[in-house]
Design brief:
alpha+beta; 1 helix; binds zinc ion; about 20% strand; three-stranded antiparallel sheet
Length: about 90
């Protein structure tokens, strides 16, 4: 799944603030997960459908878009239950 840098609905930037290398309070190194920036999009989960994130939601316009590739049952479920189209 491509990493969206912008919302496919309203075009707002989904790149959050830079992840600090050290926690400013404790000065301990921050757990680094391979990304330089936080993400702004919201991961929507539905435990009745699958473990983990089912689709993404824009924090600004509340538009939804798919996390899963075409042809997957997770994508079909997101479409059926929540009307996710993009
Ligand atoms: Zn948006």
């Amino acid at each position: 799944m491509p990493d969206n840098k912008e919302c496919p609905h309203c075009g707002t930037s989904l790149q959050g603030p830079e992840i600090p290398l050290r926690n400013s309070m404790t000065l301990k190194p921050v757990l680094y997960v391979g990304a330089a920036h936080f993400k702004r999009e919201l991961g929507i989960e539905d435990p009745e459908v699958c473990d983990g994130i089912l689709f993404w939601k824009c924090p600004d316009c509340k538009g939804n878009w798919h996390r899963w590739d075409k042809g997957t049952w997770q994508r079909d479920a997101a479409n059926r239950r929540y009307g996710v189209e993009k």
